[in-house]
Amino acid sequence: MAQAMEKAWAGILDFPHADRTEPPRTRGLTMVIDKGSGLTETRELLELAGDYVDQIKLTFGTSAFYRTGLLRQKIELVKAYGVHIFPGGTFLELAVLQGKLEAYLDRALELGFTGIEVSDGTITMDAATRAAAIRRARQAGFALVVSEVGKKDPRDRVPDLHLWQQVDEDLATGSDFVIVEGRESGKGVVIYDEQGRILEDELEEMVRHVQDPSRLMWEAPLKSQQQQLVLRFGPNVNLGNIAPNEVLALEALRVGLRGDTLRQYFLAVSGDDAVRPRLATGQPSR
After folding, report:
1. What digits encode the pLDDT tens for the residues 196-251?
2. Which residue ranges form the domains of the chain, and what is each CATH number?
3. What is the dihedral of CA 43, 46, 49, 50, to 10 degrees?
4. Listing from the earlier edge strand, what are the strands of the sheet with 177-180?
5. CA atoms of 194 and 186, how far apart (whole Å)
6. Cα–chain center distance at 200
7. pTM confidence score
8. CA–CA distance, 124 with 184 (Å, rounded to integer)
């Protein structure tokens, strides 16, 4: 079902940031947070923006409430567009808490999910159990295995050094990417303060210590966060917890079709602070 289609403005205008990756991507990923979209909504999202969605997470434990047949239909629909789909990490945490990890993974695979998220955002999971969950998910045959670092409750905040170590350990164990917790709100966790502003020192410290920052996925549900991360890392930063109706707006931000990233592009090519439009002749307008 997924196929390359000519875009409406093709050949007329070039994207200011032209090095945006094409699907299937290994960087510049967009992970959509799905809190309960039906088949029609999901189909409309993929028809409109499927070229810019790489992963869909059925967040929290929401997939527990789908009728089996409907869930299978939704999973197959998403897969038909070449997009990964996986249940939220909170669901896996419950499985670990109840000693049912094997049964959980088997059912997820049988239902058709292409990915699994391993997290301990709510529960306490020792390093051996976490590593075993990542390895087991990889051995089960999931195409995508991701893990997540950071606690959902600010009262359970983990020392940053432990997060850096956990990222590298997860990648070494078998995670394809490591998600940096941002929650649905984008406030009060890991690199975000209570107002959702990025704590730049926290961000830079993590980037400096992690061996391969390109394999981090930053949960960034707020536009201000997305903008700052794109400006910091470029159009091919991995961003997660994107609302379905924000996918195209994020893509415009990535490639320079929104004010701040367009301005960054012109400052880079002109070398001054004046954004001067050009006529068809290529000369500055007067």
Report:
1. 999 999 999 999 999 999 999 999 999 999 999 999 999 999 999 999 999 999 99
2. 30-255 (3.20.20.70)
3. -170
4. 84-87, 55-58, 30-34, 238-242, 216-219, 177-180, 144-149, 115-118
5. 9
6. 20
7. 0.90
8. 21
